Amino acid sequence: MTHSQNNGSGDKEMETKTRPTPNSLASVASGRAQKQPGTAPLGSGLEARGVHAWFGSHLALRDISLDFSAGTVTALIGPSGCGKSTFIRTLNRMHEFIPTAAFAGQVLLDNKDIYEASVDVTKIRLQIGMVFQKPNPFPSMTIGENVLSGIKLAQLDVPKSERDDLVQDCLERAGLWNEVKDRLDAHGGSLSGGQQQRLCIARALAVKPKVLLMDEPCSALDPGSTLRIEETINQLSSSMTIIIVTHNMQQAARVSDYTAFFLSDGGPGELIEVGPTSEIFTKPRDQRTENYVSGRFG
Amino acid sequence: MSVTTTTVAPTKPWVKTPWQRLPSLSLVLLSLIASGIIIEMTPLKGKLGFFLVFVPILTISETILARVKADKKAAQDVLVSSFIWTATFLVFLPIASILVTAIVKGLPGLKPNIFAETMQIVSFTDPLNKGGLLHALVGTLYLILLSIAISVPLGILTALYLTEIRGPGSNFIQFIVQAMSGVPSVIAGLFIYSSLILATPLRSSSMLGAFALVILMVPTVTRTSQEVLLLIPNDLREAGLALGATQWKTVAMVVVPAARSGLLTAVILGVARIAGETAPLLFVLGGADGLNWNPFSGNNSALPFYIWKGFLIGLPEAIQRAWTGILILLIVVLILFATARYLGSKNRRKP
C-alpha cells in the first residue's frame, strides 16, 4: 500500500541515454550534462515513500514515492491543483503548519525518516531549506541581517569574524553580491522583486542545507531575474540536492536533471511519471505526460 | 515648416477661479443672513440653534444651485459631500472644544509653584500662588509606568498566545478578553478593593491603583496587539520556520519586530484608556495631599483624583486648580504619546 506502482520509474531507468529530437524543449533538456546518481560530491539524497497528504478529510496527495539523488536537480511539473506544492511542503515538514493537515508515509533523509517522533523538526528544516513562491525577506532586517537571519534564528554557532565572509559567500552564490555589496545596510524591502527572491535564496544557503526546496521561485519574476535564478540553481546543483516546483516547462527543461509529472483528475494528486528530464520531454511513457509537456492541456 | 517656440505657463485648470466660486460663496453668505434672521424671529436660540438652521439651509440651497447649473448627479454629489463635511465637523467639534476649554480655563492657574509644591499644608481654597500638584503628577506617572510595566507584557503575551500559538482555550480566552474590555471602570476599582484591601494586609498605594488600571488596560492592549499581529503575512512566519527556527525564535525575531510599530500603537491606546481614569482610583489610591515617593506603600494621589477633589470642593480657587490639573493631564498624555511615536519611528529608521 505504501509503495506505489510508479516507484519503478525512479532511479533504475535514469541512466537511459538521451537522444536529440527536433522538439525545442527536448533539445534544451538534452543540452544538460546528465548527472549520474551517487556521483555527486556533496548533498544528501531524499526519498519519499508512499507519501499521502490530507487537508481535513480531503485527500490531496495519494501514494507518492520519489527518489531524489544527492546532487541532482529535480523539477516537479503539473497543472495547478495537482499537489506539487503540497508534496514539496511535506518534504521539510512545512505541511504540518496547516491546522487541518494530516500525513501518511515516509520521507527519508540520509535513510532516516524525518517524520519519526524522535526527530527534532527544526534540525530537519535546517538541512532541508526552502525558497517560497513569493519573495519574503524579513522587513525589519537589513540585507546583511536577512542573510544571517537563519544563523540567528536557528541559534547556530558562527564566529563574528566569519559572518562577513558568510554574507558575501551566500550573496555571491545567489548571484546578488555585485548588486548589493555597497548597501548591505539597506532594508531588504528596498530591493526589486527578483533581487528579493535571490536574497531569500542567499538566506536559505547561509545555514548550509543539504537539500533546497524551491516552490515556484520564479513565478512572480521577470525573464531577466528568472534567468539569474536559473544560473544560480545551476551553480548550486554541484553542492546540493535541489527540488523545484515550476509551471514553466522551459524552465524545467533548462535547470533539471530529472522531471516528475503530477496530475489530479479531480481527486487526489498523483505521480504520473518520473524520469530524466530529456526523456520526459522527448519520449514520455504516459500519454497524459505527453499531452501536458506538448501543451495540449494544463 | 518653421519651428515656433511657445512658452507654456503652468496652470491648474481644475482649481475654480474666484469668479466661478462666487455663486457658491454668495449662497454661504445668504444662508448666514437667513439663519440670523430665523434665529431672531423664532424661539431657537444660541450657537446650537444657529447651527441647526444654518447647515440645512446651506445644504439645500447649494444642492438646488448644483441642480440648476449642472444635473442631478452634481446635485447628489453636493448633497452627500455636505453630509460628510457636517459629520466630520461634528466629530472634530468636541475634540477642539475640549482642548480649547482646557487651555483657556487651565492657563490662569498655571503658575511655577504648582510644579514645585503639594497640597500638604495648603487648602484647595487658598490663593493660587500657594500649593501645587507635584504630588498628583508624581502619582499619575507612577500609575502609568506601573500599569505599562504590568499590562504590556501581559497583553502582548496574551495576544501572541491567541494569534501565534492558538493553543487550548483560545476561544474562551478571546471571549473573556472581549467581555473584560466592557467592564465599567468603577468595577475594576471595587474588585481590587474587595479582593486585596479587604482580604489581605495590603493597603491603598500607587501599586494597588495600578492593579485596578491594569484590569482596564490589558484587554485594550491585547485586542489591539491581536489585530496588528494578524496583519503580519504568514509568509514571514513560514520563512522563519523553514530556516530551522523554533516557533518562539520566529515570533521573537521575525513577527514581533515586523509588528513593532503596531504594537506601540496598542500600548499607546492602552495608556489612553487609563490615563484619565478616576473612578477605580477612589477606592484604592487613598488620595494623599503630600508627596509620596514610594509607589508600593502609603496613600498617593493622581491628576484625575486631584481634579475630582477640586471640583468636589466647588469653590472658585478649587475649581481653578481642577482646570489647571486637566490641562497638565492633557500635556502629560501628549508628551507620553509624542515620545512613544518618536522612539518608534527612530528605531524603525535605524539602518
Explain how this protein is built.
The complex is a heterodimer of chains A (about 300) and B (about 350). With about 300 residues, chain A is an alpha/beta fold. Chain A has a domain at about 5-30 and about 40-135 and about 195-275: Rossmann fold (3-Layer(aba) Sandwich), CATH 3.40.50.300. Chain A contains eleven helices and ten strands. Residues about 1-25 and about 35-40 of chain A have low confidence and may be disordered. Helix content of chain A is about 35%, strand content about 20%. In chain B, helix 9 packs antiparallel against helix 10 (about 245-260). Chain B has helices at about 20-40, 45-70, 70-105, 115, 135-165, 170-180, 185-195, 205-230, 235-240, 245-260, 260-275, 280-285, 305-315, 315-350. Chain B is built from 14 helices and no strands. Chain B has two domains: about 20-110, no CATH class; about 135-350, MetI-like fold, CATH 1.10.3720.10. The radius of gyration of chain B is 28 Å and the shape is extended. The longest helix of chain B has about 35 residues, at about 70-105. The interface of A and B includes residues 130, 186, 203 and 207 of A.
Largest interface: A-B, 33 and 22 residues
Integer-rounded radius of gyration of chain B: 28 Å
How many individual β-strands of chain A? 10
- Beta-strand percentage of chain B? under 5%
Radius of gyration of chain A: 19 Å
Q: What is the name of the CATH class of the largest domain in chain B?
A: Mainly Alpha
Distance between the termini of chain B: 57 Å
State the shape of chain A: globular
CATH superfamily of the domain at 5-32 and 42-135 and 195-274 in chain A: P-loop containing nucleotide triphosphate hydrolases
Overall mean pLDDT score of chain B? 89
Overall CATH architecture of the domain at 5-32 and 42-135 and 195-274 in chain A? 3-Layer(aba) Sandwich
Structural class of chain A: alpha/beta
